[in-house]
Amino acid sequence: GGRQARRALCRAGCACPPLRPAGMAAMAATSFESGHDGMVHDAQLDYYGRRLATCSSDKTIKVFDVVNDQHVHLADLRGHEGPVWQVAWAHPKFGSLLASCAFDHRVIVWKETMENQWSQVYVTPATLHTASINSVAWAPHELGLILAVGSSDGTVSILEYASAAGAWNATKLPGTHPIGVTSVSWAPAGNASTPCKRLVTAGCDNTIKIWRCSDGVWAEQETLPGHTDWVRDVSWAPGLGAARSTVASCGQDGQVFVWTEKPAGGWDRKLVHDFRPSPVWRISWSQMGNILAATDGTGSVTLWKETLDGVWQQVSH
Prior knowledge:
Elements (H helix, E strand, L loop, with lengths): L39 E6 L5 E6 L3 E8 L2 E9 L5 E6 L7 E6 L4 E8 L2 E7 L9 E6 L7 E6 L4 E7 L4 E6 L8 E6 L10 E7 L3 E8 L2 E9 L5 E6 L9 E6 L3 E7 L5 E8 L5 E6 L5 E6 L4 E6 L5 E4 L2
Antiparallel strand pairs: 1-2, 2-3, 3-4, 5-6, 6-7, 7-8, 9-10, 10-11, 11-12, 13-14, 14-15, 15-16, 17-18, 18-19, 19-20, 21-22, 22-23, 23-24
């Protein structure tokens, strides 16, 4: 099955609360000077953990080689006209591809055509979204080369590459979050013989929504209320041997929830921790899906694990 790209934290000499939490493969933290001229909003390791992409308010993306604790700058990617919020590496079966989304209403897909030489292979049309694009996520590689894109205009787009035509096709999810979309996350593909397209989205309407694609048509399965302010991030847990679907969410209200799908339908909600008065910006699952990391408004990253009796407890470092 596909392995989720590990996530990293980097620092540009400034406080960076909106960063995603680090992957839990190792507990040691490493800091380095990114070279960005503004706040760093995201930092993502590729599938193999050997390359790091960062993005910033300075409108640029930087790519680094990661060897042990050393970070060697390889390339600068310029093309966005506003702050770049997120980056995402595609699975290596598709080559060296990186997607980015920004305040300029656009997603750019970058391809490494020669070593450390990157070019733009796709830019979303100006008419696709009418506001900042806040989140971008690649689907499990079993489903093909597909991107989910969430925007402040309240809509989510699904961008799918049709190899036969050599073109990208865009589909809009119906409805979504009227006030704005903050985060998108794919479900594991599931059974290899009959992979399933499912997606969770988070929004400024204080809800998360579960979506499913059947026969090429996307439809909303569930709207899950529970947060009392904007939901800042949502993450579907990896399905490595898990018999149930699990989603985590965090919000401006300082609460982190874990949602578990019930066999008969619907979802159970469990509070992991209440960080109030601090908001919680980002959450991330470990590769095995048994540890949850949360980055709160103080810049602290904490790790949480469910006990055998169903209580979530903080994991000591």
